[in-house]
Amino acid sequence: MRKNNLEAILIKIFEKFGLKRSHSKICSDALINAELVGAHSHGLSRLKMYCDRIEKKAINAKPKIKIKKISPSISHIDADNSIGFVAADIAIKKAIDNAKKTGIGLVAVKNSGHYGLSGYYAEQAVKKNLITMIYTNAPPAVAPHGALKSLFGTNPICFGTPTGSKVPFILDTSISMINRGKIRVAARNNQKIPKGVALDKFGNPTIDAKKALEGVQLPIAGFRGSGLAWMVDILSGVLTGGNHAGKVKDPFNDFSGPQNIGHLFITFKANLFQKNYNQRIKDNIKTIKKLPKIKGVKEIMYPGQSKFKRFKENSKKEINISEIIKNDLEILNS
Ligand SMILES: NC(=O)c1ccc[n+]([C@@H]2O[C@H](COP(=O)([O-])OP(=O)(O)OC[C@H]3O[C@@H](n4cnc5c(N)ncnc54)[C@H](O)[C@@H]3O)[C@@H](O)[C@H]2O)c1
């Protein structure tokens, strides 16, 4: 489907579910971006879930979002249980403004929802020559190291920096072996998941996506990944006023109320300490890329490089829509 056609359909759907046009456009842009970067687990596969949550009032279609100025650098946003895309869009723009004015922007968000890909917001800051760090928590999926029960989300950690070239450095990674969205997509399509990423509810390793969703996802690097997940829960939940310690509701199967997810956006000027930051990072990347490579590796890539390439290539083509998603679009649009 052509991007413009998809955009028109998505805006119409979100407006039908009660979002105002500007908010509908923000949601549509974020979902289309996810498809274009190949993150299908965070794109159209979630549209029905967002609409169901709006319909069941677990997402507030008409939020009164409040931005409290704590200092010229620091802002606190109460998103009033808006859809996460809208809260995050406002927050990153505020963090960019604060950093442009003062050198650094720190924006905390509470009462938000699932906002998709952290990297999408990081790219906006990097385009303005800012370094950024972004955190969000998510519903229980990963057991803290030593615990029998999931409590941490797949809590992504995101760091972005300008590179002195068009291609930004965006490290945007879940703290779980694979992101939960990929397991959900596999479950929906009756596909297997890789070995070593999840345990079933009895604690046995599984490659069955449905059993993995009922069980526990494994963190990256054992207790280290568990520690990183905990850090994200503190920064995006405890610090901001969002839910934390396993209280974020699962967006797909708990409609009993809003998620009250928290996010934290940190942005700062890349040339704060060294005026020639862009040249320095260019040199840094060049040195690393010139290292001898192991067999089978053509190029040492930096985080975000492949995604940038995928986005450019996919932007030239029509967007591929699966039969399941076509069905969702038809039902939601009727
Ligand atoms: N909102 C939420 O609650 C939530 C939760 C979890 C994940 N997510 C999002 O899901 C997305 C996917 O997460 P993921 O963990 O599956 O990411 P991933 O495993 O696809 O990639 C992780 C990072 O590794 C980098 N990378 C990949 N291959 C590389 C290579 N060959 N060389 C160098 N770097 C490489 C990527 O650029 C990326 O920065 C992220 O955008 C994340 O923000 C969102």
Q: What is the average of the pLDDT values?
A: 96
Strand order of the largest sheet: 1-2-3-9-4-5-6
- Output the structural class: alpha+beta
Largest sheet: 7 strands, mixed
Brief write-up:
By secondary structure, the protein is an alpha+beta fold. The chain has helices at 3-16, 21-36, 47-55, 84-102, 118-127, 180-188, 209-214, 223-238, 277-289, 305-315, 323-333, and strands at 66-69, 74-78, 104-112, 130-136, 157-161, 169-173, 198-199, 216-217, 261-269. The longest helix is centred in the N-terminal third of the chain and has 19 residues, at 84-102.
Q: What tags apply to this protein structure?
A:
binds nicotinamide-adenine-dinucleotide; alpha+beta; 334 residues; 7-stranded mixed sheet; globular
Report on this model:
The chain is of the alpha+beta class and 334 residues long. The protein has helices at residues 3-16, 21-36, 47-55, 84-102, 118-127, 180-188, 209-214, 223-238, 277-289, 305-315, 323-333, and strands at residues 66-69, 74-78, 104-112, 130-136, 157-161, 169-173, 198-199, 216-217, 261-269. Strand 5 (157-161) and strand 6 (169-173) form a beta hairpin. Helix 1 (3-16) crosses helix 2 (21-36) and helix 4 (84-102) runs parallel beside helix 5 (118-127). The mean pLDDT is 96. The structure holds nicotinamide-adenine-dinucleotide (NAD). Nicotinamide-adenine-dinucleotide binds next to helix 5, strand 6 and helix 10.
